[in-house]
């Protein structure tokens, strides 16, 4: 294909385009002639693999720069990683400072203006480092400039950590800022000059990856150290930045110098040695050296003296009399750096605790806790971008990220406006603000974040690369500082002198209850691990056992179908032997199935193992949320009862990781290890549950009231609370005790002659579980390698790598939902997740349709498919995933809870089995695109169902549920405070 904006050397009046389609289009006439030779009726397009020398004014047309498959040279990768660790310094400061200022302000009694100066001073002085870095790196070399950056930041970090006063702290930040300025410019330039052409996008995006890792480490430090005294915690937060600075300074000594800088210095033999190490073959190294030497000669105009590259005249030529190509390069580099900071991303990250505070999260520890989840999401998406920059190109990811940020920031603005003008602070607006912030930083990490560094460091000719990158990064830091000042001017709430202590409405969580909830919920890891690991194992099972696609569907779906048996039996079983021993039974059954699968010599044997494991999964899915709901206080029941979904998601992530780790083993061993390793958590669960107490509600139903009272004493915060809960439980359990031996009356009351509230409970529970599986989420996860293969990713290790990233995104969002279920309520998160899934599935269907109907497989459609899959599972993890288990286990009265939950989970497993056993078959008939459009339609119906038939249960005791479902008062369904349901 040809790019419409490439320069045509035969046309003097070629229209000026301010932002080229790719950096590859910034060509000299000689390069354009080489790359635009006609081949039949089609021009040879400019690929994403243009070398740095092709971007400059020289005429190379090397063959190696147009290879389609590019293995990453390990030496180049090691050098890029070491250089990129320098960027951790800025990332750590951004992340840690967002929390540290809360404690600095309180400890030093400084004003909001002083806080602004403190935060902004680092970025103002980074401008000095950025401007000086070009000349410095041309003079002492790229490698020693990295050491200089780390050493300067180290001095600043030590001063900040030991600062006895505001003045010393400010001096420390000024010095650290100069180091940051050096590191921001030099890391991507060094990596770009070291990297082979075909992997330059990935390697040059590593600085942004390390910035995100630094932000995440800063958030984690905030959360871990926030409990220390205020005179100590912020000093540790800031002073710990010295550790990565020391590591960077020492590690860089093992790195080679940039071969392009060596050539500019006339040290060609040293450059050749470096290129041999960073190239796949000696021939490639020689060809790269030849191109670099030619480019250096062209850039210097054949000058033999070093004055031409040492900086004399560079700024004059670049600013006052640039050539047409150089002018376009400057506009592109300055523009992308300007918009990177004008987007407001770094300011949002710096002030994210204030953003979350204004959204209604008052407790400081909770504010920094949410930033950890935001950091996980941000890191997940920057990894996606880094891995696929060289496959998709710069433009598609940049445009996708920019559009996504625009939509996310519009959502954040809408939510913020409602919160500013509403006295009641509606929950939907709070949820929208938090999700929009996470979405905005995620889209930034897909596009502007990594691509700015890649683009700025690769497009300048050799003569101007250091100084040009320096100028672009200086613009970046300048507008970052201005933007932060604007943020505080526009939002006066950021200038408030007081910070709320965070006396949250949420009750303090009993540690014993939390421990029991965690232990019980670990049984759900069994299903999660199977979902994650089976998505990869089937690829090797199919190859090793030579089975058909129909047999694959049967193998995958069997576990879900037979989990129906466990779900149906679990109600009666848990009423008979107790909740605790039912968890042990679930783990034991799954353990037997896992061993059978791991040792299976044939397909029938493997199928038998999945049948047994499925029964264990059925027991686990019903009993874990039920036990946790019966143990939990009303004010923290949402969080604790959502833990099973957290562990399902965590199990999926572990399964993905094992897929990736074991995929390199022989095909007859790897899948057996993948499946057999599920026995390990099953053993741990079976033993761990033995130290847990029995459910106090089950004990009360059995007439063991003194034991129930003892358990309540342990799981309640006060004796008064324990007594109150005891009275409610005994009263609610009386009908169950009186009819305990009747058994069949339970099913009769549930299905044949239910009262009005029971009928509404049954409809709500069954409907919720039906739509959870009809959404196709489990099938998408089971078959996501097939989905990604259809999207054009065929390498198995790449498939598993994308799975791991998807698992990280899914885990991040389910943690967010779990933490805030009791604050926002069930309905808002459920409606948000369902609507988001509908939109994501529509996007996935659109991308898949284009991929299926187009022979060229457009890159934008490929990107859309991957992002839509990740968005789909993330929205599932916000809403349907955790809320289904919470809601199903809490709404039924004590006498019907076990059997009612059993019935709901049975519907869940039946639909899951049907979907997973027919997903591939239906997709072959109507295509993947058609299937995803159908699932999107299902989610639209689901959203309407949830809106009409599910009342809010937040903050209500289990004994109050019948009152909620009995209430005949009609209210507006959009009133999230009352959350009353329409009559049926």
UniProtKB/TrEMBL annotation:
UniProt GO cellular component terms: membrane
Chain intervals for the UniProt region annotation (Disordered)? 1-63
Cross-referenced InterPro entries:
MFS_dom, MFS_sugar_transport-like, MFS_trans_sf, STP/PLT_plant, Sugar/inositol_transpt, Sugar_transporter_CS
Q: Name the Gene3D superfamilies for this protein.
A: MFS general substrate transporter like domains
Q: Which UniProt keywords apply?
A: Membrane, Sugar transport, Symport, Transmembrane, Transmembrane helix, Transport
Q: Which domain of life is it from?
A: Eukaryota
Residues covered by the Major facilitator superfamily (MFS) profile domain: 79-525, 516-954
Q: Where in the cell is it found?
A: Membrane
Q: What kind of membrane protein is this, topologically?
A: Multi-pass membrane protein
Protein name as annotated: Major facilitator superfamily (MFS) profile domain-containing protein
Species for this entry: Cannabis sativa
